[in-house]
Structures are given as structure tokens and as C-alpha cells.
Amino acid sequence: MKTEHVYPVPADIAASTRITEEVYREMYDRSVKDPEGFWAELAQEFVSWNAPWQRVGRWNFDTPAIEWFSGARLNVSYNCLDRHLADRGAQTAILWEGDQPGDQRRLTYGELHDRVCRFANVLKSHGVGKGDRVCIYLPMIPEAAVAMLACARIGAIHSIVFGGFSSEALKDRILDADCRLVVCADEGRRGGKFVPLKHNVDAALSQCPLVETVLVVRHTARPVDWTEGRDRWFHEAVESASPDCPPEDMEAEDPLFILYTSGSTGKPKGVVHTTGGYLLFAAVTHKYVFDYRDGEVYWCTADIGWITGHSYVVYGPLCNGATTLMFEGVPTYPTPARLWQIIDKYQVSIFYTAPTVIRALMGLGTDWVKQADRHSLRILGSVGEPINPEAWEWYYQEVGEKRCPVLDTWWQTETGGIMITPLPGATPLKPGSATRPFFGVVPVILDAQGNELTGPAEGVLAIAASWPGQARTVFRNHDRFRETYFALYPGKYFTGDGARRDADGYYWITGRVDDVINVSGHRLGTAEIESALTLHDSVAEAAVVGYPHNIKGQGIYAFVTLVADATPSEDLKRELIERVREEIGAIATPDIIQWTPALPKTRSGKIMRRILRKIAANDLDQLGDTSTLADPAVVEDIIRGKPA
Ligand code: ATP
Ligand code: MG
Questions:
Q1: Residue 309 in contact with residue 326, Cβ under 8 Å?
Q2: Mean pLDDT throughout 215-233?
Q3: Contacts of 531 (CB under 8 A, 6+ apart)
Q4: For labelling alongside 34, which of 89, 256, 353, 518 has CA 20 to 30 A away?
Q5: Residues in domain AMP-binding enzyme C-terminal (predicted)?
């Protein structure tokens, strides 16, 4: 894009960092030239092992077969709890802020350890053991972390289903993972509304005959239906259980969890992560990317139903002995000042959220931000979608007041942890760029034939070597794992995303490869065109897709949501087209602009261009799997609003 600023490392950060630009380069070089030596050292520093590995890393991307630290023994809950007790038993592990302002709890490492051991014994008493699958369907409450760590303690494999999913989606995931036990709550609370979790479980289980036990957290304490013999209150079970539960000795390659991807592109896949490599990668990235310092309060807003919640609400921070904040509610309840007030209340130093949140709050105006002073903030992060430069700038200037680096972190459910990202003290920032690879990560850009491009280039983003946090398989479907990620470009991990590498070696994610638009033979990523549209003050959000066009092959169809106080007009359309021509060029000129009150999003807040593409092409009877949509009504609105 024409408008490209470079922001140097903020002075305060530069003065106190261990990882300067020079150190980053040295460490990165070492990490890719001697990955085994590099990861072995970090494995000693970050993780406590019961027995050593035979081999640090061994993989081939053909079968594919991926192993890290095989032969080594450890337990994830021991690493996240027991080993901290001597020094940090009384330190807060989890700060919890409920949906209702004033609802709050805190758990020390000692208390969390006690709950986890008790709940692990409850699971055992219901016959759950090593390798069994447990479905967790909970709101953002501390019991979610307790349930995850209790599974890890006894070697059970958790499969968390986001609390916003319907009973249908829950049923599919319980059946696919073959879960025998479900942990849920009576209800969740979001934005002042009640979410009927237990009710959804009851509906799902009518079609899941193998589930024998449901453990129910009493959260809102309103009445729920009860199936005697199957349902049991979580708190009663925990109170009566013994607090003594030795951690199961696990092999590094034993599965830790299954997690279904968010479903932006199609049918969700049950991605499997294992014990040793995953924990190490989550802990190392948490420490270096966020520059986490002892005693700081760290807040990642992601739900535990997503990989970000797994790696950066629970496993990474707790492995590092951090204080992690969990928030049950939504950014706009009771007012759009909520997030910033929470930051003040708990003196949050590090804040990690998603572009959809930033864009929504930006559209509501900066006054809400100013209601809090935010002095505690040191680091800001973003994940989930490309962050358009306009939103990046707002986050940097208004929220962080130019003090806090904005870390645009690119990664996926399948990568387990952050892959491409700035490091606070090492990386000058360019709004809209995820910048450079993390240690041990070898991104490559390929052309359509799979040739590796060097220097500045644009194409398909792939990863050339394994890293410890890499997913090992798709649950009970290794063929799908191979076909999805390793078949198209042999010997490389195919990310499904496109990227551009600039002359400084910075990476810019251009969008999903499936979403690429081909105009008269020119391949255009969606991110850049959307960024150009959102540069206009009247535009809150935009999504572009290709549609069949007689002359150009594909034309560009833009769905645009305006900010609260803007009015749609033909003049505004002309201005937007002009803006795209200036920023990118005539080739990217939208052929059609449709105003829409909202865009279809997954429940994790990502724009679902797949559905917009069908609407643009008038394939209305082929919208595909819409079960992961946050609000299906949005699709109806857009279909109705289509220009004739
Ligand atoms: P599915 O794989 O089921 O279609 P999904 O890809 O949305 O779902 P996730 O693993 O949660 O599931 O998301 C990873 C994807 O999110 C990336 O492949 C990329 O497209 C997008 N993404 C994440 N972070 C960034 C980022 N910082 N910049 C650009 N895109 C990002
Ligand atoms: Mg994906």
C-alpha cells in the first residue's frame, strides 16, 4: 500500500528489553541452523521433565510424521501448577471478571492446584483415564481452566467446544471425538443475556448415547433440567473429592487435546496437539512475544473455545507462572468502555485481542477509551484476521497512546502458537504487517507451481520445517491431515493463507488463498483491498470477494459496513472506488459495492468470505455449512439487500 509508516521500538521498551534487534537476529539464525540445539536449551529452561528425550525433533512432511522430544516424560498440569507452589503458591494465577461488573474472583496457584487435583479425582471416579476424551462446554469461568488442567493431570484428552455453539454443533463434536463425559455449566452470561448451556447439552446428548456423565458447574444458579444418574453438580463432586492426585507421567507425544478449527473455510477439523512440544512452544512464545515479566497482569480476551484461549489464556501463561485474566463478558456491555475499565481495575500490562473487537470499538468512537486511563498498559496484541492499517493505527495511537507496541501475531489452530510476529524490543513496526518469523519458524512464499520465491515476493505462505507446537494429526483422520496440509506442496506445511514479503523481509498476510480474486489474470488478496476501503472515515468494516465476470474472469464485489454516523450515497461509493485506485491501482477497482449493516462472521469473529462469495455469485442454494456462523440473520439481510 502507498501509506506505509514504520514505527521504531518505543523508548521505554528499548531501554528495558533483553531481546534487541541484534539479539533477535542471532537467536533466529541459531534457531533455524541448529533447531535441535536451540529447542533443547529452551526445553530445559521452560519445562520440567520427568525423563529426558531420545531425540529433540524428528519429522517428515510426506507421511506426515512429526515428533518432538519423543521418549521424554512430563505432565502439563505439574508444569502449570505444582512446580510453582514453592515460590508462587500465594500468587494469583487466575483473575476472573464476570459479565456483570462487580462479579469477580481470584484463584492463587495454591487454590488452583487444589481444585485441579480434586476435579482430576472426580474425573477418575467416573472412569475417565489416560487417552479418554472429555468434552468441555463452559463459559469463560475459572472452572474451564480447572477442567482443562484436570484432564491434563490424568492424561485425558480434552475437546473444548465454544460455549456459543449450538446443540447441533456440540453434538457433532462430541460424536467425532467420541467423548464419554461432558463438563458444562447451568448457563453462561454474555452481555447481560443468559446462554442455555445445560439445555444445549441435554439436546445434544439425546443423540450421543455414549455419554454417561455430565458434570455441571453451578454458575447462574437458575433452574435447569436434570437427568438422575447422569448429571452431577461440579461443586458437590469437587468438595467431596480428595485433594491428593499425583500427576500422570505422560510421554511427550501423548495427545493433550483435540480442538476443532473455527470453521471459516469449511467443515471443522479435529486438530490434535500433543504434550511436550505444544507446552514448550506455548510457553516460549508467551514469554518472548509478550515480553512477559514476573508479577505483571496479562490479559488475552480470547475464549477458551479457540486455540488462542488454550495457548494464551491457560497453558502458556500458567506454565510461565503468570497472572492471567479471564473475562466472561463482551466488549460493549454494559458500555463500550468495559475493556478499558477492566484494564484499569486490574492494572493490566499486556492486552491481546482480535481485529473484530478493535474495529467494533473504533466504530463507536474514541470517547469510550478515554473513560479509562490505561497507564498500566505496556504491550498490545492482535490475532485472528489481518488487522487493517486504519484499525492498527487507532489501537496504537488511541488505546496505547504510542507507548505500546502493537503485535500483529499470525498463527493458526494447527500451529499451536504464534508463528509470525513482532517482538516488542526487537521489531520496528509496520501497520498491517505481522512482520518477521518467530524463533525456529521458517516461512516460505511459493508460486502456484510450488516454487520457492526469494526476496520480495507474493504468493502462498508455507512453512518449510517443523516446530514444536505443530499439530500432529486430525483426530482419527490422518489422511485428511495429509491432504489438507501436506499434499499440495510436497515437503512443506501449507497454511492456506497468502502472503507478501517486502524488501525488509517483513510478511504481510494477504488473506486466505481460497479467497484470492483473479481479475484479468491478476491475483489480488482480499486484505489489501479491504484495508484500502476501511481507510475511509465512513467505513467501519469491509469484505471483498470475487464473482464471475464476463470480461475479466472475476470482478470485485465489496460488502461495506459504515460507521454509526455515516450515510450511504452514490458519492460515497465513488469516493471509496477512488480510494482503492489511489492505494492499490485501477486493477483493484470494486465493480459492485453493497452497503450492509453487518458482515457474516464465525463465532470467533472472523469474516466468512466463503458465504459472501456464494451470495455475490447468486449461488444462494449453495451457501454450505453455516453452523459456525455467529448470526445467521446477517446472511438473510445481505441477500435481501443485494443490488438488482
Ligand atoms: P478453518 O481452518 O476451519 O477454516 P480458521 O482458519 O478461521 O478456520 P483458526 O485456526 O482459528 O481457524 O484461524 C487461523 C487463520 O486466521 C489463519 O490461517 C489466518 O487466515 C487468520 N489469521 C490469524 N491471525 C492472523 C493475522 N495476524 N493476520 C492475518 N490473518 C490471521
Ligand atoms: Mg484455518
A1: no
A2: 98
A3: 1, 386, 388, 389, 390, 432, 583
A4: 256
A5: 528-606
